[in-house]
Design goal:
10 strands, 359 residues, 16 helices, two-stranded parallel sheet, single chain
């Protein structure tokens, strides 16, 4: 945590209101303030890790219960400022894209600029604005980084409730937003938690293509298409490949099915607008990208971090699920002798699937 000063600390309640006003000026869609006691979440986190639902994301197990203890993660933390930034872009129709097996589906959050950079920069600006008001204070910015239970922190601060798909839902904006946190050593008044409004609905469970939401509020990441196409470093399990369809980076199905997302708001952020035609591109078009193409076109995108090899791996699976055509077979054949054994195996699976099923 950065240097502590508090040279000109105003009344905590008044400061909290100013912080929210500054956040609105910086363009955050919403923000709220919570405490650091997440002890009630520890049992659920422990059980989730014990079940192995984190898959190959070893960092989650390494940090263990520290994820539920903000004051241990950043000593001196007294309050957490949680922020929301809407991301749903003005893009081609998601359902139409998913229903066209020749098209590539990229999760809507990843169509534009890397959200880590956008949110981190803005949270740092908020910290600087606070420091200008009260002097140096202890703080640390988090954006989907380090062992932070961001949805739990945000729900306890009142930004929404945890849906059955485990994402945060706001009744006026759905769930299509990013979260970020500013840990501070300021004792600020906490906002009231939001009440839950999922009721008996299980649309997200029914919509998941791979059955990754194994029970309400319980996600097995090992089955999740977002995990399989983004976090998984090796071969995608064969049992899930046909279920992935044309989803080459992430999955939005549980959110598309959620009734609350009829209130989802289009983002006002130009940074989140689709780049490189990713909201309407064909599988064949993207499969032809060289490693240089991938690096240039995905510069500044969250997609860049999976690397060209896994990018092609994902598209090979989607091409294996596409209707058989000379163009699809030629595209797959063009990568048959790729230096990557991982990619070659996925290409062979796709070609064999066309041969056996006559897709």
């Amino acid at each position: 945590m950065d240097k502590v000063g508090h040279l000109n600390s105003p009344d905590p309640a008044a400061l909290a209101e100013r912080i929210k006003a500054w956040g609105a000026e910086l363009g955050f869609s919403a923000m709220a303030i919570g405490g650091v006691d997440l002890s009630e979440a520890e049992a659920g986190l422990d059980a989730w890790l014990a079940a192995g639902f984190h898959g190959g994301m070893d960092y989650m197990a390494r940090h263990g219960l520290k994820r539920a203890r903000p004051a241990e993660l950043v000593p001196g933390t007294l309050s957490v400022i949680s922020v929301r930034l809407d991301y749903w872009p003005d893009a081609s129709d998601s359902r139409a894209q998913l229903s066209d097996p020749g098209k590539a589906y990229v999760s809507r959050y990843a169509l534009g600029r890397d959200y880590h950079k956008v949110l981190r920069r803005r949270l740092q600006q908020l910290a600087e604005r606070i420091a200008a008001e009260i002097g140096e204070f202890g703080h640390r910015v988090f954006v989907d980084s380090a062992p932070v239970l961001e949805a739990e922190l945000a729900s306890r601060a009142g930004l929404g409730w945890r849906g059955k798909h485990t994402l945060l839902i706001d009744r006026s904006a759905g769930s299509t937003f990013f979260l970020g946190e500013l840990f501070v050593d300021l004792a600020l008044p906490a906002d009231a938690p939001a009440t839950a409004h999922c009721g008996s609905c299980k649309a997200c469970l029914d919509a998941c293509p791979t059955g990754a939401i194994v029970a309400p509020y319980r996600l097995d990441a090992r089955r999740c298409i977002s995990y399989l196409t983004i976090e998984l470093k090796g071969a995608i399990p064969v049992e899930f490949r046909p279920l992935i369809g044309n989803r080459i980076y992430g999955c939005d199905d549980c959110q598309l099915a959620c009734p609350w997302n009829r209130f989802a708001r289009l983002s006002r952020e130009a940074d989140f607008s689709p780049r490189n035609g990713l909201d309407s591109a064909s599988l064949i078009e993207l499969f032809a990208w060289s490693e240089e193409d991938f690096g240039q076109r995905m510069a500044g995108s969250a997609i860049l971090r999976i690397g060209h090899e896994n990018w092609l791996r994902n598209i090979a699976v989607a091409l294996g699920n596409a209707p058989t055509s000379d163009e699809v077979l030629r595209a797959l054949a063009s990568r048959q002798d790729h230096p990557s054994a991982l990619l070659r195996e996925h290409v062979q699976w796709a070609l064999a699937r066309h041969q056996s099923l006559g897709l």
